[in-house]
Amino acid sequence: MFTTAIVSALICTGSLTQTQEKRPLPPTRGTAAAALSPLKADPAFIDFGFLPPNTPGVGTVILTNTSDKPVKIELVQPSCKCTTTTDLNGKEIPPGGTETLQVTLEGAPSMGMRRSSVKVMVEGGSRPLDIAIKGEVSLPVRIVPPYVNAVGGKNLTGRVVVESIDKKPFKILGTHGGTLTVQGLDGAAAEPRASYLVAYDLTALAGALPTHLYLETDAVGAAVVDLRVRSETIDRSTTIDLLDKRAVLGAMKAGVPSEATFTTRNARYAVNKATSTSSDIAVEFVRADRSKDGGLTIEVKVTPREGFTGFLQAPITLWAGEVSQQAEVIASVRSN
Questions:
Q1: What is the signed CA dihedral for 291, 295, 301, 307, rounded to 10 degrees?
Q2: Separation of alpha carbons 318 and 324, rounded Å
Q3: What's the pLDDT score for residue 19?
Q4: Strand bridging mode 246-253 / 323-334
């Protein structure tokens, strides 16, 4: 579930010798050299910090016209669909005046760093104002790095850090999906920590790698955290275009239902039923509503059977008439 992105900045440096000529920079937007934008952004960079899954980051930027002439905003352009802004196209800002720009980084289910930017262009050919945006989707406990890159059979062994983002101590209650070893523990009675070093070994699973490795913790809001596994051997195909074949439900109690949510990229298939071959859960289709992105948001009620405790990884089949799609629910079922 955790997925922290690693971004490398490439810094190009160089020097001229006596035999080299200085070459002019290429023109920008039809001018010999683009002037800096007359707009100033405050803040110039938005960092939303840690964001819970599926929770958007919303921020405000004050744009100030630092020139002695009125400035008209020609275009406000986010770098990707994950970012939306208020519509300021055509707005004129007087000298010394300001305009408020609201920026929203859409929520995401997958853990990891999200980066975006917003360009604000004004009439007159000046260089666009670029506002960088970032936020990390995370549960209260995260795994660093958030994935194992096992493409080509590489990195089948290694270590990751499992840590609380607020530095509060917690316990790792169990590990699942492969050979994972919590290093430096003296047994179940060991004192809680804010950080653990966990070794993994996928050698025995090289022919059929799991999509994720799982850890159960006693941290509030992070009953189940996962380590994604990247590999060309993993089948990610989906009949009804599911964005994620898993629904991670966190902590549950036997006999008490929770709703699992699945999302499709489009509404081509009208999902109207859910079943399971597992005797550990009962499932009930609740609804399938059209999402704002044109897909479907599918809700399924999941109830662990009475008497079941422990790690739950159970299959679910979603049905659209005769068309079906296999998915699964993940949870930590506890007695208290």
A1: -120
A2: 6
A3: 32
A4: parallel
Q: Give every CB contact of residue 287 below 8 A, 6+ residues apart in sequence.
A: 298, 299
Residue position matching structure tokens 């739950």: 312
**Of 212, 214, 229, 213, nearest to 154 (Cα)?**
229
Count the alpha carbons within 13 Å of 328 in the hemisphere toward its beta carbon.
Answer: 11
pTM of the full structure = 0.78
The pairing of strands 98-105 and 179-182 is unpaired
Would you say how long the chain is, in residues? 336
Q: CB pairs under 8 A, 24+ apart, for 207-210?
A: 207/233, 208/233, 209/150, 209/233, 209/234, 210/177, 210/178, 210/234
> Could you give the dihedral angle defined by the CA atoms of residues 226, 232, 235 and 236, in that order, rounded to the nearest 10 degrees?
70
Judged by average pLDDT, the poorest of 137-146, 159-168, 188-197, 305-314 is 188-197
> What are the chain's domains?
39-137 (2.60.40.10), 139-235 (2.60.40), 237-336 (2.60.40.10)
Q: How far apart are CA 76 and CA 83, in angstroms?
A: 11
Beta bridge partners of 122: 73
* 3-class state of residue 212 by DSSP: strand
- Is pLDDT of 41 > 80? yes
Which tens digits make up the pLDDT trace of 296-311?
999 999 999 999 999 9
319 strand-pairing partners:
273, 324
